[in-house]
Amino acid sequence: MNFKHILTVSVAVVFSCATSLAQSLSPSTKTHWDKGTLVVESPARPAGQQNVLGLTAPKISTVRVAFVGLGMRGPGAVERFTHIPGVQIVALCDYVEARAEGCQKYLRSAGLPPADIYSGEKGYEEVCKRADIDLVYVATDWDHHFPVAKCALENGKHTAIEVPSAMNLEQCWELIDLSEKTRLHCMILENCCYDWYELNTLNMAQQGVFGEVLRGEGAYIHNLDDFWDYYWKNPDGSDPDKLGWRMKYNMENRGDVYATHGLGPVALAMNIHRGDRFTTLVAMDTKSAHGKEYVEKKTGKPCTNYRNGDQTTTLMRTQDGKVVEIQHNVMNPQPYNRLYKLTGTKGYATKYPEQHYALDKSQLTASGVAPKVDDLSSHGFLPAAEQQALVAKYTHPIIKKYGEMAQKVGGHGGMDFFMDARLIYCLQNGLPLDMDVYDLAEWCCLAELGSLSMDNNCCAVAFPDFTRGYWNVQNGYQFAWANPAEEAIAEAAAIASTEAQKADCAKRKLWEKYDKAKEKAAKKAKK
Asked: Is the pLDDT of residue 431 over 90?
């Protein structure tokens, strides 16, 4: 560990407006009209580039990780990673040095060595230039997801990005090109794909419990009144009214700017770009009432330029004739709701407000569960006993492998741990990650596509094919697993790596040295 670096890194804390102000509409997006549909044109794949479907990279026995963005979501990720064997946390980076420094407590508690601390405008650039980092985990504010991820990929690092991972089509295409060019993973950190109900329901869908899934629904309905003032307020002059980055972004941009929680799990169940693809989108929104009112109360001035409606609804149709509905509402008083509904030819799943399944007697029997009641029909939900038996039969392999630890570690009920554990598992075993850069683009592009629709009288917008012609190559969505022998070897090496780190930390008394160096620096600063 570089103690000198930790104590001397100090860079200007002013982000340039050019990199900090991502917007949902890309100046480079090209469109044309075709029979009343606004067609979004896809840029040609650069010569020599190949798609990254099923991308694998060499196995990484010990995954060396840097975290960038340690405000609201990042600290939890750092803590979770201390529970995953075979991880070495190399660097902690945040705009504010104290926030990065504050995450050292998780490493100390776990007996792991201190990480190097980076902060300020160019802190993440210095992190990405290091040769001893394999993965950059990005959990900044939305404006900085893309510049950090781009820098990481350009410097040869696998990248995992909090949601939304890209704010517009231009960023989507650039991340796709970087992943294809560098052959590096670029994963969207969509934790809702790993929630317990979503995993089990995906397993059921893949094994035909619902027949052919024809329709899906997802949403992010979460009144954020209690949170608005806690979002970071960029001091670079771009937020003079101190609205915080999230309220400011909703004021300036139209469309579903946070679609991935609702869309991700549905897209996986529908095999998007793995045998089917989105082709057409239509979006509608309400007027802005609550958001506009909040800004006016906050600033004491009339707000005449609030772009995003309180509620946005997006409808999409696939090549295979299926339909997905996605909703976004962070303004109005409603119970938290991500909808997550699948309608199939033989069954139905719904998560909110309560988790239920609807199958008739014959389909439940065909799915391997013997009903205990005679008059079972799909007009009502399964009784508790039948539902419990169905879930037990179709418990997802990820839950079987990591469920006990996920309950202990937590992170939105454990789904965050599932996500992180799978990310590291795939890197250690040299497997394709659970989500690729095309998932990232398909789930994040709703903001710009929806805005284009609504700004043109809620017209139909043709969905770009982010795979550029390869959406039908893979036959269905699958999680990748190593064979048992190779998995055991990787897990043994991971455990040994973590034990060695802890032993070395204790032997060299790294935390004592760290504390003394900090104390010395503090005294010097007072002089």
From this structure: yes
